[in-house]
Amino acid sequence: MASTFLSTANSFLSSSSSSLSSLTTTVFFCPKKNNARRQLKFCRTFSKSPSPPPSPNLTKRSLSISFISSFVFSLASRSNSSSANAAILEADDDEELLERVKRDRKKRIERQGVISSSNKEKGYLQDLVYKLSKVGQAIENNDLTTASSVLGGSTNADWVQKANIAFSKLSSSPEEKTQVDTFNSSLASLISSVTNNDIESSKTAFVSSATAFEKWTTLTGLVGQLKGL
Question: Which stretches make up the Maintenance of Photosystem II under High light 2 C-terminal domain (predicted)?
């Protein structure tokens, strides 16, 4: 029994010791009982505790506000920069467009001057319109004999040579020259088909020739100056 009691006492003392060690941060001040001038019978307890850390919520909120402010400022700066760059690009595009319009207008004026002074060449082209019209009517009536007589039987015919003189003088752009080449190629096929009495090929070649010539007159601005178009 004695050993049991000692064991229990030791456990109690150990527990008390642990409790006391956990209160090391508390200091007790008690006045002496024999102090006559100060018969204060109380003890003042001072607890030493560290200052509370800053509120986590406050810290996170401050960081969030700071981040959002920086982000908004960054977006505003980028927006202003983008707007400025866009304005510069638009100004450049406007100037380029204006210059292009001026160049095109100058070319049209120059072209009109050339056409106005090319009465002989316009006469050659007017003869071309009449001949194509007669050939088309003859092919439509399956009269390839008349079509052959109008065409002249060769690309060396006088009216073809004169038409090419007009083409050379009045064609300036690559598109116009391409249509001239297409016309001459289709005309050669037309003459060959008519000579060989091939009505279907003659119709196809005639449409191709007439289409190329019409496109050329549109590109050059002659479409309204030639009768029969």
Answer: 124-229
